């Protein structure tokens, strides 16, 4: 019996001392949990970079960086989150700070160039890529090099960089789409069409490539929808794009018919197509 009482008193003493410790040495407890957070933080950082609202991730990394400034992983997390949140000017500034860090890598400089392009600062992006050793051969680097060559209308360089980039990734759909759009802007519609088909084959859900494919076909006077995997809404949008392409080529009546098809195909009110059709019919009437 005395043994039981003694154990109870000891337990009470332990809890009493624990309570005193919390009251007396809170800083020690905070430091201990700070250490635990540092261990678990790496996993939390990865989660914040891939799921959830990107603006929440920005706020998280801003707080983390303020509490533990100078850690390049937190600086990278903030920069990546700003890109995800489409806050491009802030992202470019954040990546510039990462690049200035003593532990910065060539990948960080590529990320800075990407952020600068998103912020429409093409000259600085080109300078940043030029500062990276040529031995740093990555998919992202060559994709950006191709985009800059495109912007400078250096077509041979652009084609070379696109080809290299496509060979360095297992998911080339977006790059093939960019390459096709480059061909489209040059007026090489047949080659652009081929590129867009390749992009869609790699990623059947890439609607941008589907829409670009329609523009390439429309520019050649081909006003039929190709056989593609598409939803009813996508079909309506593609008919709308094809109708506008027909109008651009001067085939106004064909364009009006395609716009009517788009309006009838859409499961809800298709305001954009209805507005385009009304504008065309009003133009014809006023003449």
From TrEMBL:
<feature type="repeat" description="TPR">
    <location>
        <begin position="173"/>
        <end position="206"/>
    </location>
</feature>
<keyword id="KW-0802">TPR repeat</keyword>
<dbReference type="Pfam" id="PF13432">
    <property type="entry name" value="TPR_16"/>
</dbReference>
<dbReference type="InterPro" id="IPR019734">
    <property type="entry name" value="TPR_rpt"/>
</dbReference>
<dbReference type="InterPro" id="IPR011990">
    <property type="entry name" value="TPR-like_helical_dom_sf"/>
</dbReference>
<protein>
    <submittedName>
        <fullName>Flp pilus assembly protein TadD</fullName>
    </submittedName>
</protein>
